[in-house]
Amino acid sequence: MRHIVVVEDDPVNARLLRTVLERRGGWRVTVTEDPHELMRMAEAGEVHLVVLDVSLNDSHWRGELVNGIDICKLLKGGAATASIPVLLATAHAMRGDEQRFLAESGADDYVSKPLVDLDAFVAQIRRWLPAEAA
Q: 113: pLDDT confidence band, cut at 50, 70 and 90?
């Protein structure tokens, strides 16, 4: 079963993302705000995709406050984790932000919050996850 990690600090958004991904997608989902937990799982080969909130209020990496852009750079900069698809998620989308966030972070895709079209979101995730062997 494919494993998706959601890095989200808002409990309502985290619950919605988990519910949609588990029920509509059938994936295993872990929700965390901790970049150390994410990197441990990713480096161990346990993560197939990451949905990463851009604005995080209490995520720390080696004593420094980090946001989703910083965490994405960590993932994309690691030999064992660079190929994991990362979808940035943000509610602070203004014209040009999507392209700027993708270019700055190295993320693979982008989704605006709040999620409005849940089926389109699940389809977007499916495009990034290779089919599992039967």
A: confident
Q: What sign results for the dihedral spanned by CA atoms 69, 115, 126, 25?
A: positive
- pLDDT tens digits for range 5-31: 999 999 999 999 999 999 999 999 999
Contacting residues for 15 by C-beta, under 8 A, at least 6 apart:
none
For each of the domains in the chain, give its residue range(s) and CATH number, in order of start.
Answer: 3-39+55-128 (3.40.50.2300)
Predicted TM-score (pTM) of this structure: 0.93
Given a contact cutoff of 8 angstroms between Cβ atoms, the answer to whether 9 and 52 are in contact is no
Strand stretches in 54-105, DSSP E: 60-61, 64-65, 86-90
Report d(CA 41, CA 23) in Å as an integer.
Answer: 22
The secondary structure element, H or E, covering residue 97 is: helix 97-105
